[in-house]
Design goal:
By secondary structure, the protein is α+β, with helices and mostly antiparallel strands. The longest helix has 22 residues. The N terminus is likely disordered.
Length: 349
Amino acid sequence: MKLRRWVVTVVGVACLSMSQLSLAATCEGSRIAIVPNAEKLPSVESKTAAGNTGTQAGGKGGKKVASDAGKNLARLKKRASGGSSQAQYLLGTYYFQQAASTGDYKEAAYWIKRSVAHGCTPALLYLGLLTQHGLGGVPKDIEKGTRMITTAAKAGDPEAQWWWGGSLITGAGTHKDPKVGFAWIKRAANAGYPAAELALANLYLVGKGTPKNPTAARTLLESIYKKKGDSGPIAAYFLGWMYMNGTGVPVNVVKAFKWMLIASDAHVAHSAQLLKQLTAKLPKQKLRTACSVHVDPLFTTDEAKEYAHAKAGETVAILGRGKRSYEVYIPGRLVGYIPPECLGRQEAR
C-alpha cells in the first residue's frame, strides 16, 4: 500500500511548501501537517490556509512567489549538500510532502537518511515511515520502522508523538491501544503541535482513548482559533459542527453559522455544504431600500473594506438585532450591519 493512500492532509499549505521554505528552520521537528490514520469527526481537510495569497500560477504575484521559492530551494540544497543536518531534514521532509501526491519517495529518502546519519532525531519519524512501507528504495521492515518512530517520540519530538499516538489509536501498523495513543497525542498537544491540538480536541469529542469531554474540546478549539494559525479554520469547523448539533453546547444556528462561515472561507472540506444547510435555517427578509452595509471585518479578507452596497429587493439572512442595526448575511457576499429602515416587513420566501 502506498503511503499516500493513508496520509491525509489537514492543514492544506504546509510550512515547507515551495512558497515558504525557510533557511532559518532547525532540526527540532518539521511543521508539515500530515495526519495519520487518526479518528476524525467528521473528516476534514483544508485546501488552503490563510486565504488567497496570490501564489497561484499566473499573475505577477504568483510568478514572484515561485521565483523566491526556487531561490530558497536552491539555497537549501546547497546547505544540505554542505552537510547541514537541518537543511537535509527540511529538504527531505519537503520532498516527502511532495511525494504524497507523486508517489516518488527517492529524493525524500536520500535527504532524510543523510539527516538521520548526522544525528537529526526528528528525521527518524520520516525514515521510520519510509521503512515501514518500503518506499524510496528503503527496504521494508515494519518493526524496524516502528522502532524509529517511537525513538523519535520518546526523544520528545511532538510530531512523532502525534503520529505514534494516532497509530496506536487506530492500530495502523501496530497494536491498537487508544488510551496510550491518547496520552501521546496529549503530550504533543501540550507541546503546542497544531495537528496534535486538533486531534486532541477531536478525541475529546468522540471519546476515543478518553471519556467524552465536549467542554474540554470546545475550550481547546477556541484556544486554537485565537492563535490565528493555519489550524484556525479547522477549529472553526469543529466549533460550528458542535453548535449545529448541540454537542456539549446548546444548539445555536447563528453561532454555528458564523463558525462555519469562517471555515468555508478557508475552503475546509464539507464546510460549504453545512454552511448552506445553516443558511437555510436563518430567517430572511428582503431589503426595502438600497443601503450601505457596515462590513464585519471578522468575515472578510479585505481589510480595507469597511462598507458595501446592498440593492433594494436583495434578500438577506438575519443574524441578530441590536438597538440601532441588524446583523445580516448577504448570501455569497458578506456579513455586516444595516439600519432597521432598510428592511421590509415581509419574510422572504
